[in-house]
Amino acid sequence: MKARVRTAAIIVVLGLAVLGVVLSGIFPVNTGDAVSDRLVNAVVPRACLAVGLGVLAVVCYKKMFAFPRVTKSALMFFLPCLLIPVANFPFSALISGAAAVNRLDLLWLFIIKCLLIGFVEEILFRGIVIDFIEETLKAKKHRVLLTVLISAAVFGLFHIINLLDGAAPAAVLLQAGYSFLIGCMLGAVYLKTRNIWGCILLHALFDIGGLMISDIGAGNPQDTLFWVLTAVCGVIVTVHVTYAVLTAVKQNVN
Fold it and tell me: Would the pTM of this model clear 0.85, i.e. be above it?
């Protein structure tokens, strides 16, 4: 009886979350402030999804929200990964004046949006999807590598949905490509640390840096120094993550 009640409660909560997303699309906020309205209309549906997925995770994936003891090895693996979101901040463009943040009054709302994106997508793709893939591949020798690659591929393909918003195909394919790479890093972080909060932090910081100018600013955030820093940090983290994953694969095989 308790199991049925729990299942019914989950269905109701998820149903209400989906209903909230649908209604927010049908009745968007329109106050006349285009920047504010765009942020609010991005926050509301994600807040609905966050509640729904949060309840689902608490009920069905209790360990996901736990704060595991931070070991030295987990911390040493996590810290280099911070290079990726840090490199995504437009520091040089802001310093040179090529870009500017001109809606500091909406910074708090922008940060909430990015936190919600991180929360929703990490619960779904690093928590639920990885749990399913791990369970499915538990008998495979290379399950760590396969779990990282498959979950990252699902994450990358998910971003193709942006075509429905009218985004240019080339831009969407580029986004899907780097989302796959980011997904590999985040998947490895989750498997190594078993801490979803670290993944949420990395994801949110990456989006804060990457969306800051387009959401609450103006100008070109991606100058030459930005790309150089991105490339250098990308190589460092790729080597770092690849070594860790291959080491885990070798341990599983042995």
Answer: yes
Q: How many whole angstroms separate alpha carbon 209 and alpha carbon 21?
A: 26
Cβ atoms of 196 and 168 within 8 Å: the answer is: no
Give residues with Cβ within 8 angstroms of 52, minimum separation 6. Answer: 13, 14, 16, 17, 18
- Please give the angle made by the CA atoms of 201, 207 and 208, to the nearest 5 degrees: 85
Q: At a CB cut-off of 8 Å and minimum separation 6, what does 127 contact?
A: 57, 61, 64, 190, 196
What is the C-alpha separation between 207 and 44, in angstroms, rounded? 17
pLDDT tens digits for range 33-88: 999 999 999 999 999 999 988 888 888 777 887 777 778 888 999 999 999 999 99
Which residues have C-beta within 8 Å of that of residue 114, sequence separation ≥ 6?
A: 204, 207, 208, 211
Cα separation, 140 vs 48, in Å, equals 37
3-state class (DSSP) for residue 30:
coil
3-state secondary structure of 69: coil
Q: Distance (Å, rounded) from C-alpha 81 to C-alpha 183?
A: 12
Give 146-149 contacts, CB < 8 A, sequence gap 24+.
147/187, 147/191, 148/184, 148/187, 148/188, 148/191, 148/245, 149/184
